[in-house]
Amino acid sequence: MGQQLSSQAHTSINKLPEKVARHAALARESGFLTHEEFLARLAELNEITSQLVAGQVKHLLFELQPGSDSSALWKVSVKIVCTKVSTKLSDSPKFSNT
């Protein structure tokens, strides 16, 4: 009985448009994602966005909102902050000793 339902669900997913099927697969995979894997994917996203802006002044940086991933239910409470940052070193904040 359970195998038949699984087979029907798999057949239904194959009939979905490609974008919806990809989204469903990502949602399914995220259920098994560890915290370390999540952080690695976030780092990978930042690497990709920094490479896509070759020659531009700013790019997007994705970071975890501090404390949003500290509970055991981090998958439902995590918040990601998106910030536009400068790619130029000369625009980085300057610190003084005074």
Explain what the structure shows.
The chain has 98 residues and is α+β, with helices and mostly antiparallel strands. The protein folds into two domains: 1-32; 34-98, no CATH class. It contains four helices and two strands, in the order αααβαβ. The longest helix is centred in the middle third of the chain and has 18 residues, at 35-52. This is Ring finger protein 141.
In a nutshell, what does this entry contain?
This protein has 98 residues and is of the alpha+beta class. It has helices spanning 2-15, 18-30, 35-52, 74-77, and strands at 58-64, 80-86.
Give me the number of helical elements. Answer: 4
The gyration radius over C-alpha positions equals 20 Å
Beta-strand share of residues:
5-15%
What is the average per-residue confidence, as pLDDT, rounded to a whole number? Answer: 76
C-alpha end-to-end distance: 74 Å
- Total strands: 2
Name the structural class.
alpha+beta
**Count of discrete domains:** 2
Low-confidence sequence ranges? 90-98
**Major sheet strand order:** 1-2
Percent of residues in helical segments? Answer: 40-55%
How do the helices and strands follow one another from N- to C-terminus? HHHEHE
The main sheet comes to: 2 strands, antiparallel
Shape label: flat
What structural keywords apply?
50% helix, disordered C terminus, alpha+beta, Ring finger protein 141, 98 residues, single chain, two-stranded antiparallel sheet
Topology:
Layout: H1 2-15, H2 18-30, H3 35-52, E1 58-64, H4 74-77, E2 80-86
Antiparallel strand pairs: 1-2
